[in-house]
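Incident log, support desk, overnight shift.

02:14 A customer reports that sequence design results differ from what the structure should imply. Their input is reproduced verbatim below. On-call engineer (initials T.W.) acknowledged and began investigating.
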C-alpha cells in the first residue's frame, strides 16, 4: 500500500492533458503532507501514476489520521520533506493545462498551506474538482459523490486513501464523465455543467465553482456583513 512509485520523466508524459493529485496528511497542520499521489492523463487514458511518501515537518501523526490512510511515522522517517519533492513535481504541473482533484478544496488547501509553510515557488494552473463533475454527470447517485461511491458506480479500481490509487480514480472519473458527455476534452463539457475551473497563481486563488456556488456567493454578498454575523 505504501510502495514508492517515482515520477515519470517529463519526456514520458509529454502531451499529457491533465494530472490528478491526491494528498494524505499526518494531521491538520500546514506542512503535514505524508503522501502524494499523481495520475497523468494522456491520449484519453491514465498513462502514468506516481506515489511518494513525504516526511512531515514535525513528524506529528494524529491517530485519527493514521486510521484513515495507514501511514505511520516509521513509514516516512527517512523520506524527504515536501520541498525536495516539490522540486520534482512543479515542472510536471507547469507542463500540463489542467490539475484534477476529488474534493479539490482539501487538496488545493493542503498544497497552498505547504507552499506558504515552506516558502516554495507557486505554480500557475487551472484545476477542476471531480466531486463537482460527478454531481453534474451523475446527479442521482444514491450513495453520494465521495470518491469510493463514484468509483464503485463506475467500476473503477480503488484502494481508498492510497494516494496513487485515489489520484488514478480521480482521473478515471474525469475521463468517464467526458466520454459520457460526448467530448474528448473535459473542459468542453464545463458550460453544460455550469462549472467554472479554479485558478491558482502566485498570490492569487479562485476556487472551482458551480453556477449554484456563484449564485449563493452573490446572494451572501448582498447581505450586510453585520447581518451575516447574527
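02:41 Re-run completed on a clean worker. Output:
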Amino acid at each position: 500500500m505504501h510502495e514508492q512509485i517515482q515520477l515519470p520523466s517529463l519526456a514520458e508524459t509529454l502531451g499529457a492533458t491533465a494530472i490528478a493529485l491526491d494528498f494524505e496528511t499526518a494531521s491538520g497542520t500546514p506542512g503535514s503532507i505524508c503522501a502524494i499521489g499523481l495520475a497523468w492523463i494522456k491520449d484519453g487514458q491514465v498513462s502514468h501514476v506516481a506515489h511518494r511518501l513525504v516526511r512531515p515537518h514535525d513528524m506529528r501523526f494524529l491517530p485519527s489520521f493514521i486510521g484513515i490512510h495507514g501511514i505511520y511515522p516509521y513509514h516516512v522517517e527517512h523520506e524527504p520533506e515536501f520541498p525536495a519533492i516539490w522540486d520534482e513535481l512543479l515542472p510536471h504541473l507547469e507542463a500540463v493545462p489542467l490539475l484534477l482533484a476529488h474534493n479539490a478544496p482539501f487538496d488545493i488547501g493542503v498544497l497552498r498551506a505547504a507552499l506558504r509553510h515552506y516558502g516554495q515557488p507557486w505554480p500557475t494552473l487551472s484545476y477542476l474538482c471531480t466531486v463537482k463533475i460527478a454531481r453534474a454527470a451523475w446527479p442521482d447517485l444514491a450513495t453520494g459523490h465521495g470518491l469510493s461511491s463514484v468509483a464503485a458506480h463506475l467500476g473503477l479500481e480503488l484502494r481508498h486513501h492510497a494516494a496513487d490509487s485515489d489520484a488514478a480514480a480521480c482521473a478515471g472519473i474525469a475521463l468517464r464523465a467526458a466520454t459520457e458527455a460526448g467530448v474528448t476534452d473535459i473542459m468542453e463539457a464545463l458550460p453544460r455543467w455550469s462549472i467554472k475551473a479554479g485558478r491558482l497563481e502566485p498570490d492569487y486563488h479562485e476556487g472551482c465553482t458551480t453556477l449554484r456556488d456563484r449564485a449563493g456567493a452573490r446572494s451572501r454578498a448582498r447581505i450586510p456583513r453585520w447581518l451575516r454575523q447574527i
